[in-house]
Structure prediction request, 649 residues.
Amino acid sequence: MELWEIILESLQTLSLNKLRTGLAMLGIVIGIGSVIALISLGQSTQQSVQSQIQALGSNLLTIFPGSQNQGVVRGAAGGQTTLTYDDAKAIMTSSQITDVANVAPQVGRREQITGGSSNTNTQVLGVTDAYAQVTNTSVSMGSFISSQDVDSLGRVAVLGPQVVSDLFGAGSNPVGQSIRINKISFRVIGVTVSKGGTGFANRDDVVYVPLTTAQQQLLGIDYVNSISVSVKSANLMTDAENQIGYLLLARHKISDPTKADFSIISQSDILNFASQTTGVFTALLSGIAAISLLVGGIGIMNIMLVTVTERIREIGLRKALGAKKKTIITQFLTEAIILTFAGGVLGMVLGIALSLLISNIISLPFTLSFGAIVLAIVVSGAIGILFGWYPAKRAADLSPIEALRYE
Amino acid sequence: MKQNSAIQITHISKIYKTAYIETVALDNVTFSIDKSEFVAIMGPSGSGKSTLMHILGALDTPTSGSYILDGQKVENLSDDELAEIRNKKIGFVFQAFNLLPRITVLQNVVLPMQYAGIPKPERLERAEKYLKMVGLTHRMHHTSNQISGGQQQRVAIARALVLNPAILLADEPTGNIATAQAEEIMAIFQELNDSGHTVIMITHEPDIAAHSKRVIHLRDGKIITDEKNRNRKLVKRTNIID
Prediction:
């Protein structure tokens, strides 16, 4: 008997018992569907986090005060006071440092801001003019903080689009208006381009003021919270990290590098960390989905075993009429594979639909994981063979006499 | 070996063993059936006639002895080799018809030809030819559970004949059908036998055995009589279109 005939016959058999076929497929549909949906969602999350981190600027090093290994108790990063504006200037101007393009020190704190006819609570960042280049920030209206603003302690502010819409209404032009931060009046000189992002990475809900103004008039401090450094090119990152490290150690008069009172974190460190986190997340989701796939496979085996029992007489007859073991195995295996394969395709559609739906609801970029689809097809085929084999073998091993007598 | 033997069985024994007892189902049975014979094998239940039918039908192998079917040794073949023998050399007619219920009459008749690898156009041609012979052309596209018992058995006969087997082996072929239709089946068997087919029929009904040319009686696994049927009952087909 040729394979295409067996396939046709299997299709006929399956279509003659639609309820059973449907129920058998349901397990696989749900299994494959959830695998694809969860893997796609995991990857969307990963990509979204990565793109948010990358939006901060590539070739970026960030220097935080405080050591990463300071005794037993580790302070919160940025909680220390060991970095200063002068450190930032030194990194920019030192002759020992050759690979650095720009240096942007910053301070920040959440403040209550009033302006227009309303008020909001948002992140106030004290920055220098270099911040715009280092973090790829540009303005849609007006201009960014200039070096003169920093030098002269100018009371000027650049608003993120979220703050504009909170204070003045979406789309309005606040340039020239004034806002009050901590009861001090600032003149709005620009609005940044929307960068999107959510939660900690929402870079639209922010107010930029000159670093010096923030230090002296808003916060009353002489240190900076962090220094962002843009390196000339990505392959100079390690060199730049070393150069900055030596310079700061010397400036802070520390001879043992393990006792450094600052830490330098590169963009790739953050990216790796984030990928690891989301990777674990994806793996966890996939694990759950894999369990449902396994349950679906056992469901198929169950149905196939029932089918074999139900059709013992038929198998006996087919063997009496000359069907060889191989033919019987192929027949039952084909039925199982068609079941799982059809289930796999339906599950794929379901999974894609689900991930589209969910990524729409929680506004993630929709990623169709090609790998997940290949995985789904391979896995559903494998399940068909794996869980179809045993019932098929049982059917083929039946003695024709016993099978024909079976009631 | 006689050239015109369809079946030669020599010293065939079949012993079933369980953990505690041995049951001798066939005890040193020897006989031969020539081509174009019409033999009825009779016996009460437990006489070994089912076991003999299984061995003749290559559904089972004997414990000892030799079985030559159509010039080919059949004892001690593998499962797949037996399947091929059943496919090519034996046409089965069962008491319970054993048609596949959900597919059409035509597909049922085509089934053995699929296993034999007959090309598709030829399958249909042959299936139609034999369905015409048993008078069921008009039921060809019905599923087999839509037709009567007698009709189902005629489909089974058509199915048994499509590969032109060496023997037609019928196991209680009229056990499940009404008398009038049973006569029709017997008429078909006689017609087939007249045209040269070897027919072997296992039955416990003397009325049915009466249609054969030769009757073998079994009891306790042994042949007790093997004789020509001198009062053969001849029937003609009524050719009622049903």
